[in-house]
Amino acid sequence: MARYLGSSCKHCRREGIKLMLKGVRCETAKCPVEKRERHLGPGQHGWRRGRKSDYAVRLREKQKVKRYYGLLEKQFMRYFQQASRRKGNTGQALLSLLERRLDNVVYKLNFAPSRKAARQLIAHGHVYLNGRKADIPDITVRIGDKITLKNNERSRKRVKQQLEANPSFTVQGWLQLDPEKPAATVVALPGREDVQLVVEEHLVVEACSR
Predict the structure, then answer these.
(1) Domain count for the chain
(2) For position 35, what pLDDT does the model report?
(3) Fewest beta carbons within 10 Å, which of 17, 122, 188, 190?
(4) Per-residue pLDDT tens digits for 117-137
């Protein structure tokens, strides 16, 4: 599967906001977005952001969502096509589908420090969905799905270390976590308020509809 191998921080600097691509590190003084002026883009000298065209505004919102969830263009457009076939608001349906990706759910449960780390955890076979090994990060979870860990000490120790390292992490209401096992259940579908990224989804829809 194709994946981006470049600098994660470059994406945050390009969008001018924290996309939380490196987990806790993004909250420290090491974050490049904190160290540099936000109006400067990536590169040694940066460049000043001029007035954006309507196309540029829509493109930036689309790129922001893609990079936040760690998707490439073809993957993202597949989600958009699924969302456009559903009734109701296409933008909210798109964000709901992206929130329900297994790698995002594992991250939202604090089993991994970032979505990238969550994808690695899944790909290495540490995560089970409804009692079966789930090694595909883009599986879409449903209400009632149970997320557990592989039944060995290495898997449990790895996740428990992450839970202990970030005890103030708040699990959202659509997920029910049992930190002792550790295991979790999807008890509802994520709403618009559960999306922590600041984005205008109607602009994303307009960008994808061209």
Answers:
(1) 2
(2) 57
(3) 188
(4) 999 999 999 999 999 999 999
d(CA 130, CA 87): 28
**Directed axis angle between helix 73-84 and helix 90-99, to 10°?**
120
134 and 70 in a common domain? no
| Residue 48 per-residue DSSP state | B
- Beta partners for residue 64, in sequence order: none
As a whole number of angstroms, the distance between CA 196 and CA 193 comes to: 7
* 8 A C-beta contact, residue 145 and residue 185: yes
Helix, strand, or coil here: 78? Answer: helix
Quote the CA–CA distance of 102 and 135 in Å, as a whole number: 10
- Residue 39 and residue 119 in one domain: no
Domain with residue 24: its CATH number is: 1.10.1050.10
Residue 97 is predicted with a pLDDT of 96
d(CA 191, CA 53): 31
Q: In Å, how far from its chain's centre is CA 90? A: 19
* Contact status, residue 110 vs residue 169, Cβ threshold 8 Å: yes
DSSP 136-175: -TTPBP-TT-EEEE-SSHHHHHHHHHHHHH-TT----TTE
Burial pattern 128-164, b for ≥16 Cβ within 10 A else e, equals bbeeeebeebbbebeeebebbbbeeeebbebbbebbe
Tell me whether residue 148 is in a domain: yes
Domain that holds residue 204: 8-98+197-208
Confidence (pTM): 0.83
